[in-house]
Amino acid sequence: MTAATPPAASRPERTFLGHPRGLATLFNVELWERFSYYGMRAILLYYIVDAAANGGLGLDQPLGEAVVATYGAAVYLLSVIGGWLADRVIGAQRSVFAGGVVIMAGHLSLAAPMDVVSWLGIALVAFGTGLLKPNVSTMVGHLYGERDPRKDSAFTLFYIAINIGALFAPFVVAFLRDHWGYHAGFAAAAVGMLFALVAYVVGRGTLAPMSNDVPNPLRPRDSARTPLLALGLVAFVVAVLVLTRLARGAWVDAVIDTVSILSVVASVAYFVVMFRSKDVTRAERTHLTAYLPMWIGAVLFWMIFEQAASKMASYAANRTDLDSLGFHFSEEWFQSINPITITILAPLFGLLWVRRAGRFPSTPMKFATGVTLAGLSFVVLSAAAAAFPGATSPVYVLVGVFVIQTVGELCLSPVGLSATTSLAPKAFASQAMALWFLAPATGQSIAAQLIRAMEGLPDGRFFLTLGGMAVVVGVALAVISPWIHARMRDAEPDHDALPE
Length: 500
Known about the structure:
Distance between the termini: 42 Å
Oligomer: single chain
Structural class: mainly alpha
Largest sheet: 2 strands, antiparallel
Mean pLDDT: 84
């Protein structure tokens, strides 16, 4: 007599490194989407400032740096729309798919050798990323219970996916650019996004059912007035754009100013709406109070960190001796230092956060450390700019700066994603994630304004000014971290449930 086969329900659930299988699906989606994004970003500044004879758009260097910073801000600013659509209209799963399609269309537009179509492509990538980015992160949070101790570890694994895609993209795109020009590099980004869409469609069944829900659907009264609000928003944006155009005298500067204004206004508006909403409980308002200073610290962190594609990319091309290692180190390759370091260190940091769960350092202290390290990286770069005139800075200087920033990123970014999903009011789940992405929008907007305001000043002074600002904010966060931690303690994962 043979033993009966145990029922399927009693078999162990298949997992991905101890996590739900849906994390593997989102891991693959994020890997290829980030391949496409960082592949484009690795050559975007060089494309914008290169002469038309070389296939570029021909803008001057400081303006090109400000444009790239503004583009980065717009990518995250548009996450407001993506978060709102997911929460109120179509749900996170549909937002991610629609965003992926728009992103691929944008990369295909950039692959076409026409200036006007290139600007359209940049706009499409920004809008598509706004639809996708806040919601794919929210879907990771949907895979876990409110106090599941695996959540921080899950977001660290998710962060590894981001950085695997970002690691290989600059090498691939740099090779294609060197052999066939900028547009071939942008075509590779389109292929990467296609792979992301395929991974998403194939693995959709492994995702949490709640990712397909609309958590805060429009009520009949809201549905009637939403078109009017949308028209009002468009009118406001156009008015700001026209006024800044009249004040600035050039459309490029007007766009830079408009994105900066909208980033600040959107961030303030989100906090005000959440604090005043009747759907937010008193405990959730206390959590928001704890979240606010950490969010401000994140703004300063991203102000520095996201200049990898603008000011630091210029330093790589114009101030670095690319042959100082005994072989030619392509300027695009610097964009891979961060993901290489992340890939090596992220598992160690994930293990560290699990082992130190419920003990020092607290979440706000992790934020303080990240912001301070970002500031110190620019202080180091300021010293290097003064010590190595012209294009004589050794490759190891910029490599070291990227490594310092990466350690800061591991202290702040995956922890920030987890804190956002934990501290967000339930009625604003995806929109709170959009608020997290407004931190880099605001930070890059500030960077764009400072690049324009400090144009013509020595690089060392620029780096020292921004680095000093971040160090001051980081130290202030460390001082008030006990106050912050006391107001968010009940929303943190249940560390008592962790195995010994």
